[in-house]
Write a structure and sequence with these properties.
single chain; 74 residues; mainly alpha; 68% helix; elongated; transmembrane helix; Cornichon
């Protein structure tokens, strides 16, 4: 949701448009912006992957192992 709100903010303020004559002036700003977005997506993916593996191990582990409360993942 925070990233969706940021995209709406950019659309409302007209910051999503890049003119060909200004590309070199705004390039460092856009490079930083997209680097932060990519880092956010990568971190989110690994958090999701960790929770998925944790859930699968808890759900399909050996019968004698302690199971995790499933309501945490819903």
């Amino acid at each position: 949701m925070p990233l969706f709100g940021l995209h709406i903010y950019w659309m409302v303020n007209g910051q999503h448009k890049v003119f060909a004559t200004e590309i070199y002036r705004v390039l460092p700003q856009y490079k930083r912006r997209f680097s932060l977005k990519t880092a956010f997506y990568i971190v989110s993916f690994f958090i999701y992957l960790y929770c998925l593996i944790l859930h699968l191990v808890a759900a399909f582990g050996e019968p004698g192992q302690k199971r995790i409360d499933r309501s945490f993942f819903v």
